[in-house]
Design goal:
This protein has helices at about 15-20, 20-25, 45-55, 65-80, 95-105, 125-130, 150-155, 180-190, 220-225, 235, 250-265, 270-285, 285-310, 335-345, 375-390; strands at about 30-35, 90-95, 115, 135, 140-145, 145-150, 160-170, 195-200, 225-230, 245-250, 315, 325-330, 350, 350-355, 365-370. The chain is of the alpha/beta class. It has two domains: about 15-45 and about 285-390, Aspartate Aminotransferase, domain 1 (Alpha-Beta Complex), CATH 3.90.1150; about 60-285, 3-Layer(aba) Sandwich (Aspartate Aminotransferase, domain 2). The protein binds pyridoxal-5'-phosphate (PLP).
């Protein structure tokens, strides 16, 4: 079956954050939304059918997770990453961000240091700060157009209060697929210093040809022993509204501490439709995902070629994964407040100001291209016209 990602699905007026909160976030409604990380594509037909079948039963009471739910997670991870996990290692969360917040509470105390490698997904900052912990910033280095981890900087900053690292792998916003050797070196530093790795791997399936996602915990038994992995089918299959994620930890002590935190707020029960959707997605998702990745790769190529040809001063960091593109506009204007005005009021495109991801993001924007090609082309045309007046 050939899926049609060119279809424009009207999302306005469906209580959809990406379209219906434009005015609240950007100050006007008439923008092409390329910001929050969900897709303008329909969720896969096999997921919708599974949910419809479940609805037909007409009783929506408390729901357990059957063995088949765990099997689908185990099989998907084995098939996609060669990572062998066990049912007993899996725990639950209504989302990856809630899971990260629970790990901060479970594995650190107020005043402890938590490592962030910036620029990075902005809820990581809140997870540290709003829980009364301190950020230990280990900024990524830009080397030949790709971010790299700065291990020397990290080793020089680790102190007795450094308890955890929040790792984004693949990386949001820059789209790095961290290589095995990079993760191994990071893991060894954490092992040496008794630091727990919280590996947010929500984008693990959205990896392009030529790259391979390595689950941090799959590198060695020792590294698995200090790692808690967060995953979800939500980015891959556009299911974020179903609030269904899971965590994996082979170390019983780590998993028990996480589960104790989950119990304290009693939010481990799960969502009936989320459970159904995860299973349907992981059991049937191969072909859909493969076509989706080809489509997103084409959108990325359109963006890369556009800037190369039309606005060569703009530097595009080519993503190795994710449908998010990290773009450096600083050569056009180094003042992000002025750039915001150009994008919003002139181009009328909602892309995310890079400063949200840390001060390293000044002059950068994150563009979400999980939308029909025609929308990407329209947005680029508007950016070209708007920037023509500001060169
Ligand atoms: C790196 C990363 N982690 C977590 C999330 C969100 O996770 P959830 O909606 O499951 O809380 C996102 C969404 O953009 C993300 O990019």
């Amino acid at each position: 079956m050939k899926y049609n990602f060119d279809e424009i699905v009207q999302r306005q007026g469906t209580n959809c954050i990406k379209h219906d909160e434009l005015e609240k976030i950007f100050g006007r409604k008439d923008l092409i939304p390329m910001w929050v990380a969900d897709m303008d594509f329909k969720s896969p037909d096999f997921v919708i059918k599974a949910i419809q079948k479940r609805v037909q039963h007409e009783v929506l009471g408390y729901t357990l997770r059957p063995d088949s739910y765990f099997d689908s997670i185990i099989n998907w991870n084995q098939k996609h990453h060669g990572w062998k996990i066990e049912k007993e290692w899996i725990a639950h969360s209504p989302g990856v961000v809630p899971a990260i917040n629970m790990t901060v509470k479970a594995f650190s105390n107020p005043g402890d240091n938590i490592i962030l490698q910036t620029p990075v997904y902005f809820p990581f900052y809140d997870a540290v700060k709003l829980n009364g912990r301190e950020i230990l910033n280990n900024p990524l280095k830009m080397v030949n157009g790709r971010y790299e981890m700065d291990f020397d900087d990290l080793e020089s900053k680790i102190n007795s209060r450094t308890k955890m690292i929040l790792l984004s792998s693949p990386h949001n916003p820059a789209g790095n697929v961290w290589r095995r050797d990079e993760l191994q070196r990071l893991g060894e530093i954490c092992l040496k210093n008794n630091i727990i790795i919280i590996s947010d791997e929500i984008h693990n399936d959205l990896v392009f040809n030529g790259y391979k996602h390595t689950p941090t915990a799959s590198i060695s038994e020792n590294i698995a022993n200090i790692t808690l992995t967060c995953m979800a089918p939500s980015k891959t299959f556009n299911l974020a509204g179903l609030s269904t994620a899971y965590v994996i930890a082979s170390n019983k002590e780590i998993l028990n501490k996480y589960n104790a935190e989950l119990e304290r707020t009693h939010i481990g029960l799960g969502n009936t439709f989320g459970i159904t959707a995860l299973e349907a997605a992981y059991n049937n998702g191969e072909e859909w995902l493969s076509q989706l990745l080809d489509y997103i790769q084409e959108n990325i190529t359109i963006v890369v070629n556009f800037f190369k040809k039309e606005l060569p001063k703009v530097k595009v960091i080519i993503p190795e994964a994710t449908y998010l593109i990290w773009i450096d506009f600083s050569a056009i204007n180094s003042n992000s407040d002025e750039l915001n005005k150009i994008f919003i009021d002139e181009a009328r495109v909602a892309i995310t100001d890079g400063r949200l991801y840390g001060e390293e993001g000044n002059g950068y924007y994150r563009m979400n291209v999980a939308c029909p090609k025609s929308v990407v082309e329209k947005a680029l045309g508007r950016i070209k016209t708007a920037l023509a007046n500001h060169q």
